[in-house]
Amino acid sequence: MAALLQQLAPEAEPIDDRYAGIRRRAHQRLMEHGFPDLKTEAWKYTSLRVLEKREFSEQSEPTVVPPEALPFDACVIRFDGGLLDDASCDLPEGVRLEPVDPSELVNVDYGDRADAMAWLNLARFEQAWKLVIDGKVDRPLVLSMAFAEEFSASVHPRLKIELNDGAEALLIEQQRDHGEGLVNIVEDIELKRDARLRHVIHRRNSGSVWVQRTRVTVAADADYRCHALELAGRLVRQDLSVHLLEAGANGEIDGVAFIDSRQHVDWHTAIDHEVGQTNSRESFRILADGSGVGVFNGRIHIQRGADDSHSDLNTANLLLSENARINIKPELEIYAEEVTASHGATIGQLEDSALFYLRSRGLPAETAMALLKFGFAAAPLETVKPDSLRDWLTEDLHAVL
User: Fold this and answer.
1) At residue 60, does pLDDT exceed 70?
2) 3 state DSSP class of 231
């Protein structure tokens, strides 16, 4: 991976701004650890070799890709080429954008080789923004990030989202890619006491490699709920960790990914019960067709002393062709006694009996298969609110299937 280090993190003078020292330190740590390979446990099913075969250009003036029309009123915060266009933001009352203070990044520590992409982000980011939310925001906040066909650079967006006490918001990450670059995002989300966040990740990619690390901390009586619709890409890696820090904290993840030939999607999730009287639930589904590869690693960690914690993890997956592969690994790591925790994991194919039933009612084979796939895939999206958002997601899913 030495060539990849030189390609993505060459020895060069960092941007001379107030973050320069932070970038230099992160570059040193990246050089110490190097990038993960297939011997790195957290990356054993996902290779970064596709990056070695590419030549990344310097980021020029980014092409503006207009955000897709939404079937509901929303505040759109646009990132062009991975850089925030703050002039286009018309933020609602109670929401503000501000640069991240360097003091918030000085003590960041990601660990070893498995976290190399996060170190790379810290070494190469151009902007670091904080989105602060006070009170209840009536309009959805859409983080729109899109890349044009000529995109071939490596970009490293960095964002912190902070919900203060009692704040409530719907945050939609709308991510679109038509190029062949690298998008390497680090995102930190903090929910303070009694905060509520509905977090939607809607990603539809093409040839770029897309790596995102999202870390969520949830305080007392706060509620974090994530809905993910992953419509594949050449290589997608999502790390999502939810840390339940105080009693009454709740964390939920519902996701579905569809993967076709020459596509690879890897979702690693972790929910950490750091104290008792916390609750979590997770449901994730993968459909893999053609020669597509899907990976799901879901981990529930209940720490010592976190009694009266409750958790449920379920993953169900469909192989739609002989050449598709799905690797799943549910994990329960429990150090407390008075808890309830369960997990379930299945990999299967479409049932012949269900297909025969629909065919016997006069449906063509393709239509019957599409209905069965859609019925399976849409289940994690059923609880999305409002209805207009759910319909938008399911219509996009239906079009792909």
Assistant:
1) no
2) coil
Q: Under DSSP, is residue 276 helix (H, G, I), strand (E, B) or coil?
A: coil
Rounded average pLDDT over 219-237: 95
Q: Name the residue type at position 139.
A: R
H/E segment holding residue 206: none
Say how far apart CA 32 and CA 59 lie, in whole Å.
Answer: 26
Residues whose CB falls within 8 Å of the CB of residue 303, separated by 6 or more in sequence, listed in order: 272, 273, 274, 275, 335, 336
Integer Cα distance of 274 and 89 in angstroms: 37
Q: Is the CB of residue 27 less than 8 Å from the CB of residue 2?
A: no
When pLDDT is cut at 50, 70 and 90, the band that residue 12 belongs to is: low
Contacts of 222 (CB under 8 A, 6+ apart): 163, 191, 192, 193, 194, 195, 196, 248, 249, 250
370-391 confidence digits (pLDDT tens): 888 899 999 999 999 999 999 9
DSSP 97-157: EEEPPGGGTTT----SGGGHHHHHHHHH-S-EEEEEE-SB--SPEEEEEEE-TT--SEE--
d(CA 300, CA 334): 8
> How many angstroms separate the CA atoms of 396 and 366, rounded?
18
Residue 147 structure tokens = 């890349």
* Residue for token pair 């949830």: 218
CA gap 147, 179 in Å, rounded: 6
Domains of the chain, residue spans: 2-351
Residue with tokens 């870390």: 215
Residue 130 makes CB contacts below 8 A (sequence gap 6+) with 97, 98, 99, 100, 159, 160, 161, 162
At residue 24, what are phi and psi to the nearest 5 degrees? -60, -45
Tell me, rounded to whole angstroms, the distance of Cα 212 from its chain centroid: 6
Q: Which residue from 201, 171, 187, 215 is spatially nearest to 130, judged by alpha carbons?
A: 187
For the whole prediction, is pTM greater than 0.85? yes
Find, among 179, 186, 227, the residue nearest to 205 by Cα.
179
What is the Cα gyration radius of the chain?
21
In three-state secondary structure terms, 340 is strand
